[in-house]
Structures are given as C-alpha cells and as structure tokens.
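Data deposition worksheet. Section B asks for the primary sequence of the deposited chain exactly as it was used as input, without tags or linkers unless they were present during the calculation. Section C holds the resulting structure in token form. Section D is free text for depositor observations; keep each observation to a single sentence. Incomplete worksheets are returned to the depositor.
Section A, Depositor: J.P.
Section B:
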Amino acid sequence: MTTADALAAPRSPRPAAPRRRGVNLEKWGWIYMRASGVVLIVLIFGHLFVNLMLGEGISGIDFGFVAGKLANPFWQWWDVLMLWLALIHGANGMRTITNDYVTNPTARKVLVWAIALSAAFLIILGTLVVFTFDPCIGVTPDSILWEQCRAAA
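Section C:
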C-alpha cells in the first residue's frame, strides 16, 4: 500500500457520522453561553451604573447602601439572577476547558463533578445570603444602625 492509497484526497466527502439519539448537551451548553453572556452584560452594566454612577458614586457604597439594596425585592432578584447566570456560565466554561485539555477520563470526570458541586454550593450559599440578609442581626446600642433597627422592630 502506498501513501497515496492510504490518504484521502483533500476535500473529498467524508462519510456522515452516525447520529446519536437524545439531547445534545454540548449544543445547549453552547447556546446557553451565548444567551447568558448577553443577559449578563445587561445585568452587570446595570449593577455598575446603579452602584457607581447614581447617588454619591463609589464613596456612597457602604453597609447601609448594600442593606438598602438587599431590602428591595427587585434588587434581590436582580442580584440573584446575576449570581446564578454568572456561576453557571463560569462553571460551563470551566467544564468545556476541562473536557478539552484533560485526557485522563477519570481525572476529567472528577474535575467536572468538582466544578459542578462547587458551582451548586456557591449558588445555594449566595441565594441564601441575598434572601435572608438582615442588617439588624448583632446590632448593639453603640452601632450606627441602632436607631434604624429599633424603629423597624
């Protein structure tokens, strides 16, 4: 057998790969990355605009500013949506990199599971923080928040 017989001619048609049944997760991951990227741009720049441009700017960001934002359900959902999209977007990107560069199947599986568990843990923890945040926990009479917390109680 000569080299010419072993190599196919350039641009010659290749036989079609057999189509697998079921959901194509790679395709949906690719679509998610594009869609979540567009939504994240809106969410992040909206977040930055409200925090840095409106009001007193960066000098106005303190515990009271954050407590006030997290007391409003609109900003709670805005921040939770941003958190969820960013963490899932980042975890999907790390999964893609792991699948591309880790050749050992066992190591790849362990790393992908570690990425998924880390993202899930951070999503749960972040969501709990946003929705259960109470600025009055642990406030003492000598705190600057004492009057506001006493009035709210």
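Section D:
The helical segments are 3-6, 25-53, 63-70, 73-101, 105-132, 146-152.
The domain at 25-152 is CATH 1.20.1300.10 (3 helical TM bundles of succinate and fumarate reductases).
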